[in-house]
Amino acid sequence: MTSPDRNRPIGIFDSGFGGLTVMRALVDQLPNEDFIYLGDTARQPYGPRPIAEVREFALQGLDYLADLGVKALVIACNSASAAVLRDARERYDIPITEVIVPAARRAAAATRNGQVGVVCTEATATSGSYDDALAIAHDIDLTTQPCPRFVDFVEAGITSGDELLEAAHGYLAPLQRQGIDTLILGCTHYPLLAGVINYVMGDDVQLVSSAETCAQATYSQLTRLGLLHDEPREASRRFLTTGDARSFEGIGRRLLGSFVTDVEQVVLEAVSVG
Ligand code: DGL
Questions:
Q1: Are 238 and 36 in contact (CB under 8 A)?
Q2: Which of 193, 227, 234, 246 is most buried by a 10 A CB count?
Q3: pLDDT band at 258 (very low <50, low <70, confident <90, very high)
Q4: Half-sphere CA count of 167, side-chain side, radius 13 A
Q5: CA-17 nearest atom, ligand 1
Q6: In the sheet that 96-98 helps form, which strands lie side by side, from edge to edge?
Q7: pLDDT by residue (tens digit) across 215-242?
Q8: Closest Cα to residue 227, out of 14, 4, 2?
């Protein structure tokens, strides 16, 4: 790997808006860094798509950010991470972090009874990526629960109420029956549902946010490589979307706050995915 310039921004890729929860964690932990966020909102959600298609779309987005000259890539989407986990590190000449392995490691360290759960999209569930990431940890039993409606609730701005609570009870009941003590929020929208998930699961179940652990892994990796800004500075944030810029700004401001402004629309090119 060549040594990228520490003055370059960090690129963040997501299928749409959910990666903004990762960006929020990154901005909290790395306030002196410039960020470029790309959300493939024109083609979201990735969760119900076949994994080969998610892989193709994710590589297009990551290639776009790499071509802008970012110093590091963050795959801020569990479905995209699941799809490109195996080959993204070989494809790019810059450091890459993603959401799955750091969350799996944290869960493995946190569990006391070895019963870990993950809630995620269909794409992430069928990829088996969390099973792979936990395979090295002995004595851990992983229960995977896709929760497809959770993304719809978040995007509609619904984080409480009877309908959500009923859906949460339905999705989480198998995890409760399994007796899990640690639950990975394996979708970037789900930190916004941590309240209802904690309400249903109770305080004895630790929640591991893949957004938080991804940001911490990014901090660690860029620190090890000497790629962080050490001095306080005014950092920039740039937002790109493949969809409608105005609606991205509306939803983005709701999820991340008022600094989601001046959103630009971009077109992603087909790439050779090998
Ligand atoms: N960002 C996706 C994930 O973390 C959720 C939204 C989607 O399905 O595109 O899996």
A1: yes
A2: 193
A3: confident
A4: 18
A5: 1
A6: 96-98, 72-75, 10-14, 35-39, 237-241, 264-265
A7: 999 999 999 999 999 899 999 999 999 9
A8: 4
